[in-house]
Amino acid sequence: MTVTVVDTYPKVSEEDQRLRRALAAFEDGRIDGEELDRVATQVAETVIKEQVEAGVQLVTDGLIRWDDPISYLGQKLAGTKRGGLLRWFDNNFYFRQPVIVGKLERPSPMLVDEWKKASQAAYPTPVKPVLTGPFTFVVHCLNEYYPSFENLLEEVTDLWKQEIKDLADAGAPLVQINEPSILFHPDNTDLWMSSLRRLAEDSPCLLSLYTFFADPSAVYDSILSLPFPIIGLDFCSGEENRTWELIKDCPKDKTFACGIVDARNIRAEPVDQLARQVDDLLDRLGEEIHFNPNCGLEFLPRSDARNKLRHLAQAVSQVAGDRRLPQEEE
């Protein structure tokens, strides 16, 4: 059993306004990009420490440098310009839409440097880099250059394969691909399945595929058929979430990452409630499970995010003790 997170962590809190002040100073021209990155590194180190202290065994850097899951990557690519603000799914959270105006190129690795910094800060706890999936990225772009959506998706998939190789060459043992949009596009299943199969083909490192913001019932079988050894599912979103029902029959060659903590609700789930769910999932899926919030934590105040992670880690530890199971050792 491994306690992990999905991607984001709250960037600021009542007591920690460093990044907000630095961003304002950068926009006013009072500090340069190097100083802004120094502050972002400090904040990333803080949120990594908070995750580890809460009991998380596989952390992220909180995606502290990311404005949002889409525009951050768009800014790293040649051939894009900044577009308008659009809503990120059904959240009170907005992203800056990339506009594709030329052939996309990746002048340099997008995530390697920040992953290296995070890994150094977290050592010996492992850090997983997170990459917004090619389909979710392309769905949220405005294409003014490529002949078709399919052509753009193929280009982005190839660029993402290069990024995964660079991360693996840098030492990342696991890269997480976030594809929430595939849950909302069952009519395009053949398209996103082709992209994800190509992305995972001959991968130089372990890949996990995470979905969230809905249960996967419309495309569940298709997701399981993809060559990703770790599959992340949302057990919280939706009034009639069917994920618990869906996992009754699961392939033995998959490790499931179970999002049993609601990252869009400030109420901390009681430890005993989470422990019962952990126990149930162990009976269904075996011991090789990742437990995490159902999506990123940035929607929450930082104190609530910490508390939720503590409760999750306590529940996993309690069940491991009751069953006398070894927990993941770093």
CATH class: Alpha Beta
Largest sheet: 7 strands, parallel
Q: How confident is the prediction overall: mean pLDDT?
A: 95
Structural class: alpha/beta
- Taken in chain order, the helices and strands follow as EHHHEEHEHEHEHEHEHEHEH
Radius of gyration: 19 Å
Query: How helix-rich are the residues, as a percent range?
Result: 40-55%
- Oligomeric status of the shown chains? single chain
CATH level-3 fold name: TIM Barrel
- Proportion in β-strands: 15-25%
Poorly predicted regions are: none
What is the topological layout?
Elements lengths: L1 E2 L14 H10 L5 H22 L16 H5 L2 E10 L6 E12 L6 H11 L7 E3 L1 H6 L2 E2 L5 H22 L3 E5 L10 H12 L5 E5 L9 H6 L4 E5 L8 H4 L8 E7 L9 H15 L3 E5 L8 H22 L7
Parallel strand pairs: 1-10, 3-5, 4-6, 6-7, 7-8, 8-9, 9-10
Antiparallel strand pairs: 2-3
Q: Can I get a quick summary?
A:
This protein is an alpha/beta fold and about 325 residues long. It has one domain (about 1-325): TIM Barrel (Alpha-Beta Barrel), CATH 3.20.20.210.
Provide structural commentary:
The protein has helices spanning 18-27, 33-54, 71-75, 112-122, 134-139, 149-170, 189-200, 220-225, 243-246, 271-285, 302-323; strands at 2-3, 78-87, 94-105, 130-132, 142-143, 174-178, 206-210, 230-234, 255-261, 289-293. The strands form 2 sheets. A 7-stranded parallel β-sheet has the order 1-10-9-8-7-6-4. Strands 2-3-5 form a 3-stranded mixed β-sheet. It has 11 helices and 10 strands. The protein is globular and about 55 Å long. The protein has a single domain (2-323), classed as TIM Barrel (Alpha-Beta Barrel), CATH 3.20.20. It is 41% helix and 17% strand. It starts with a strand and ends in a 7-residue tail after the last helix. β7, α8 and β8 (230-234) form a beta-alpha-beta unit. The chain is of the alpha/beta class and 330 residues long. α1 (18-27) packs antiparallel against α2 and α2 (33-54) crosses α4 (112-122).
